Hints:
Elements: H1 5-16, H2 20-48, H3 63-88, H4 100-125, H5 128-135
Helix pairs in contact: 2-3
Amino acid sequence: MNFTQAELSGYLQVLWQFSWPQWMIFSLIANIFLYLFSIGLYVFIEKTCRKSQLQEKNHPVTGSDFYLSLLTILCNSFVMLLGALLWKKGWIVPGQTESVIGIIGEVAVLLLLMDFLMYLFHFAAHLPLVYKVLHGKHHEHVSTNLLSLFVLHPLET
């Protein structure tokens, strides 16, 4: 795929012109897509990969897990809206990197930084008070199911 700076600028211009209601709809659609993609990937891997499973059976999907996962979608959508606000206020500026190596480098640094921050946040989530109040629900899943990734307290999201 040959992706040029002009094409990127065109997409950014379309996003720049979104009204806030359009941003809300776009954010919800994007996060619902990622939610469904994650569930689909889980089901695909479970159906197609090796059959000697790591867990005897999947954790049952409960109504509260489903509602928490929907709340996680809403929280993630809100975070996306915050990112859009910061972009429109000039606090986030898309890079002008045109080389493939530069783009790969930026993505690698971003992923490493996000992974490191997730490690720190997860470490903090296991502090006794935080675990009891926020993080314990996530660890009720002693085995996984298609929603386990999204079963989080809203403040964890």
